[in-house]
Amino acid sequence: MNPALAALAQGPVYRFVRGLAVICAVAGSVGTLGIMALINADVIGRGMFDTPMPATAEIVSAAIVSIVFLQLPLATVSGRNIRSDMFINRIEGRRPRAAIVLDAFHHVIGTLMLAIMLYFVAPHLGTAIGRGETIGLYGVLLLPSWPFVLLIVVGLGLTLAAYALLSLGYVRAILMKESGQ
Amino acid sequence: MSNVEIGIWSIVAILVLIQSGMHVAIALSLVSLIGVYLVRDQFEIAGALLSNAALESVARYSFGVIPLFVLMGVLVGVSGLGRDVFEVAGQIFRRFRGGLGIATVFANAIFAAVNGTTIASASVFTKVAVPELIRQGYSRRFSVGVVAGSSVLGMLIPPSLLLILFGIIAEVSIGDLFSAGIGPGIILAVLFCLLIVGLARFAPGFTGTPQESDIPLMRASVMLQKAAPIVLLILLVLGGIYGGFFTPTEAGAVGALGALLIAVAKRRLGVRAFGGILMETGQVTASITFLLIAAHMYSRLLALSGLPGAMVDLLAVYDFSTLSILLLYLLAIILLGTILDAASILLVLVPLVLPIAIAMHLDMVWFGILTVVAVEVGLLTPPLGMACFVIRSNLDDSSITLGDIFAGALPFALVMLLLIGLLIVLPGIAIFLL
B168 near B288, Cβ under 8 Å? Predict the structure, then answer.
């Protein structure tokens, strides 16, 4: 790991955000196991007892979005978001400072994009609650949609925090190098 | 700037940003946001595109396959099924010249049927097969080359993450793509075996000269015991899909449960290990799906810019033959493979060429298989050969360089070009099952 990020990883704020990210990821994993169980129950129920689980497809569709956004913060804070690091690794060998500046730029843009996403997604939570939006099949099984939207907003917010934190780490690394440490 | 020009510049911008190391999903969403703003001149519309992609684009039943097949693949890796099937294959092919090389390909083909990523295949077989191959006297270069080459089977033989991605982007039935992947997957495995026999005979300097097999004979009952779990899992997943009991999405759930039960039965699954598996699954799922969400924004931008339509018109004016357009497309994929990873190539290129392929009345399932095979060539070739990187990071032997792995994988990459040729001449090998 980059020394600047290693220093960051010991800070209390980082550990707090990472802790929250782990909690979210665990919740997402429980969700994954949940849809696995639900689909299996549907397949077995349908095939053997001619009684499918109600609204399986609708629930899975809604849950999958929440699961992804719950797991995104940990993937981000662990540096697992997909990128092509060949170029940056190459310049890191020759000009480590340039690599850090580039990394800082990428994470600042990431922070900005997540902030814009959150800004445009968050109002949907109010709409979902206000209008009492539901998912599922009318007359069979209806669930309120706002808990799913809430999880998405939480995941986006925490991913934003992860990007902001990493940006700070890189910017601080640039400043550290400048003061000759 | 005209809308089509905005479309063209957006592609250039995305390529540059990805190449500079920006997270692919961030690069796609940034360029889409700016592009849509330039086309429609309203920031609200661009923002609505973003929130719509985040909330709606993956809210489909078929997206359930991603975490479930990833979970299944990770579980299968942990259960040691890769090692078991390699040992059994070693027994089957112990009499052949180059037998252990063939066994590696065979084991990879079987393993591919319960696992959807090349990364999983490459990391498992680097640990299991490479030390054994070197111990038997194969050259280092050939040992890592066999593992790299045969690991691409992981994403051709269903279930396959790349086929799932193509199916989602191109809105083609994932079940049909899975059916169509089987024939080419088996043919590629056979071609690899022929290559190994040929190399062992005519280029012993490359393969090394293996000694007589010294693997102790295994009792039939032991072989059966080792092979049974993976065979059962394959029958469960593929049998269920083609028997019409469940869809490919549901097969992900059934297969994940099956793999879970096998891992528990083999006592490979403690509470701590299970936590690790779930975290790994979550991170892979999140990073891939975030890409898909961003790719959805980008495909909307392309549609708004009218670039794909303009390309269709342009090609109609010049009256190119279908074959020449196809060859140009495959060349573009292979060239892009030198700067982009496999998933990104699909995300950037497929939305662009889809209208052209439809206008040429190509069979979309066949087109998907062709695309995925071409994309997979890039997994084996420098500078961005993902399979080779995975092997390097899983090797304990630091004397084998990345250059050795690329050199060893080269004959296998050439055989994949042969498969592409076969697919163009005989489309039936992909679509005969449909």
Answer: no
